[in-house]
């Protein structure tokens, strides 16, 4: 065999005329042609606030994440505003739980007080969001109330969600996130808000939310003791068309944003939803996704900072306008460092 023009190339192959590598030559060029941006304003930090503690309590399965006290939550909120994050998503961990999740609608309940605290701290510099769901507040750990024979009662749960929506709005929240996957929840929450005069409070619908093993560490974070599983309301991980249907329904019911959750195993669903609706789309980079990277990094098996930025960039590339992530503050710092 005789060599090609470039010395050693097989005869007939020719010297490559089209060279995609050219655009990867320098950092400046790579930056100029980058298709996907990642900015602090697109990131939302989920935070946990626990009733009855005066110091933050670390969450073992989520290294670096804590259950906040009222004071430490205020400090975290101020820091998030300083970093230019898009918002905070608040989760409450009550001291007492019961069958109907009474703490969720108590104006002095942990979540409602936290909303007022955080809004008082950051004003309009951050979007303050609240998880609108009963699972943190029920003793059985389900996202709704139960029938006498132990099933999750959709319509009785909607009544509780309407009460929660009014309580969060009265506490000053900017945006509520109904996350319980009950049918009709967005319409009911929207009507409850409007009926109480809170027409400006927006709704981030957890639209395509799957019955996922990747919520595991979250259960520790909120001290949940779930009996059974959530498969009668959260979606089957194999269903993508159904995820799009749920998102379209939520938009029709008045959702201002829709969300896909978890993120990494569902990037195809995220892309389909992004293409199907005309509202901003969020994705939730969930506790198990966080824990996997943190655990591997702790063992030195993965470059933590690179893995964080790659994860968040991939979620953005797949179609998320907004990303909820426990790395929000960390990522914002990495991004400003450049
Ligand atoms: C429901 C809710 C859950 C998460 C967010 N909202 C738990 C669940 O549905 O089982 C999980 C978030 C995470 O894993 O990071 N209130």
UniProtKB/TrEMBL annotation:
From what superkingdom does this record's organism come? Bacteria
Fetch the InterPro entries from UniProt. Answer: ALAD, ALAD_AS
- Catalytic activity as recorded in UniProt: 2 5-aminolevulinate = porphobilinogen + 2 H2O + H(+)
Keywords in UniProt for this one?
Lyase, Porphyrin biosynthesis
Name the segments for region: Disordered: 1-21
Task: Give the molecular function GO annotations.
Answer: porphobilinogen synthase activity
State where composition is biased (Gly residues): 1-11
| Enzyme Commission code | 4.2.1.24
Pfam families hit by this protein: ALAD
* Keyword Zinc among UniProt keywords: no
Q: How does it assemble?
A: Homooctamer.
Which NCBIfam families does this one have? PRK09283.1 (NF006762)
Which PANTHER family does the UniProt record give? DELTA-AMINOLEVULINIC ACID DEHYDRATASE
Q: What does this protein do?
A: Catalyzes an early step in the biosynthesis of tetrapyrroles. Binds two molecules of 5-aminolevulinate per subunit, each at a distinct site, and catalyzes their condensation to form porphobilinogen.
The name under which this protein is listed is Delta-aminolevulinic acid dehydratase
